[in-house]
Amino acid sequence: MVAEVAASTASLDLNAKFELYRRNRALEYLVWRVYEDAIDWFILRGAIYERLTPGLDGIVRSEAFPGLWLDAAALIRQDMPAVTRVLQQGLATAEHVSFVARLAQTAGQAIP
Asked: pTM of the prediction?
């Protein structure tokens, strides 16, 4: 996953870097466009990035990293207690616990 905060570089981040991350197969790419008060979150599907859309509750949920949840509107308005609360909810899910267990198993294996 790649995450960037873009101010004056938003055009670069959503064009040249976008292509660079796609070529290098970054599974997810998040850009906070500060001046536009917008957060774009993309997932790589095949060879193209598709935008992840928030659920009906306004929360964007990572598909590559189960339990990584973001209340983008709260982040934009700098409501860090709300951002933290949503993140903690995601980290408490069974999907996240399973994901962490799989990572721990993999970490103990030698890479050929």
From this structure: 0.84
